[in-house]
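Fold it.
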Amino acid sequence: MVSLGCAKNLADSEAMLGQVVAAEPTALVCAEPQDADVVVINTCGFLGAARDEADETLDAVERLRAEGHVVRIVAVGCYPQLWREQVLKRHPRLDAVMGVDAMYQKAFWESLLKQVPPSGVEQPVDLDAMRAFQAPRLLSGSGSYAYLKIADGCSQRCTYCTIPGIKGPLISRSAEVILREAEQLVQASATELILVSQNTSAYGMDLSPEHRPQLAALLRELDQLPGVRILRVLYLYPTLVTQELLEVIGGSRHIAHYVDIPLQHTDPAILKAMGRPWAAGSAAHVVDRVRRIIPNAGIRSTFIVGFPGETEEQFQCLLADLRVLRLDHASAFAYSREALAISSRFPDQVHGSTKRRRLREFMEVQQEISSSINEVRYLGRDVEVIVDGATRSGIYGRTLLDAPDVDNTVVVRTGHKTQPALGDICRARITTVAPYDLDGILL
C-alpha cells in the first residue's frame, strides 16, 4: 500500500489494508513495492504537483511489473475521482481504478487477493453507510500515534480549494463509530490519537438540524476513553474555534494543548477573495482567544502567499502580522493555480518568481520566530518527549506541543540509560534548539 498526500489519506489506506488482511490473514504486507504481488496506490489530487507525483509513482510500479516483480496494480483516491480518464489514458493497464469511495468497497478489498481479480467497479454508498462505516485498521506508522478521521468532505467554499469538488460536502462519522475505532487504535498500542478531517472543527454540523458543531462534545467523550494517553486535534477553521472548544481542550485530561488553525492570510481583501473570514484583525482575535484560555498552548497555522491580486504591500503586512502573532509553528505555500478552483479565473495572477521569493521570505521570518520561541520555551528545560523512533545514540520524538512530520523533532541522547520504547513518554533536558529541531539528554 502506497499512501500519497495527507494524513486523511493515510487513515483511509490503513482501513483498505485492514479489510484485505482481515479477509486474508496469511497475506504478507510488504514495505517496498518490488517485494509485493499486489500494489495499491492511494493518490492525492489536490494540486497539480500531487497528481504528477501520483503519475510518477504509478509509472515506477508499472516498471516493476514489466520487470516481473508485481502482478496487479490498483489506483484509488482523489486523483481518479475527477481525472479518471486522464489516469486511464496514461496508465491503461491498471487492474482497477476507483475514486474517493474506494474505502467503502468491502467486497472489492475482501477479494483483492483472490486468483480471479475483482472488477474494481465502485458500488454506490449512501450517507448513512458512510457515517456508520467502520473497518479494521492496519496501522502503517511507527506505532506511537495513529490518525483518527472523524469526517470527510468540506462544505466551505474557499476559492483556491478543489476539495469540495473532489470529496463533496461535509460528512461526519457517527460518534459511536469514532469511539469504537478509537478504542481499537488504543488497543493496538497507539499512544496518541490525532483527530483529522478536512475541517475538523465543523464536525457534526451535518448531523443536527441546528447545524451546530459537535467537536467539543466528541472530545469530552474521547477524553474519558480508557487507555487513551494523548489526543491531538488538527485543522480548526478560524470562526469555529469557540470558547467552549478551547475550554474543553484546556481543561481536559488527555488533549494536547495544541491548536492548529489554518489562517491562510491576514489581509482582509485577500481573505475575502479567498472566501475566508475576512474581518480586519480576525487572525489576532482568534490567536488572542487561544492564549487567553490556554496560556501554554502551542499554536500552528498555514498561509498562502502569492494569491491572485496580492500586492507587495499586502505581503509585507502579512510578514508584519506574522511577527506580531508569534506563532509557534507556521508554514506557507505558494499559491497553486488549479483550473477547477474559482481563483484560477481571477485577474492579477502573481508571477511564479514573485511567489517563490515571497515564500522564501515568509519562511525566513517564521524560522526566526520559531527559533526564538523554542529558545524561551525549551532551552535548558526538562520536557516530556513522545518517543517516535530510535537513533544510533538514543531516540527521537516530539514534545506534547508538536505534531508529527510538521513541527519540532526532538533528538535525545540516552547514554548508558535504558532506552525508552516506541510510544513511551520520557523526560529529557533540552540542550540545543533550532527552528525545527531540539536536542536533549535523557533524564
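The chain is about 35% helix and 20% strand.
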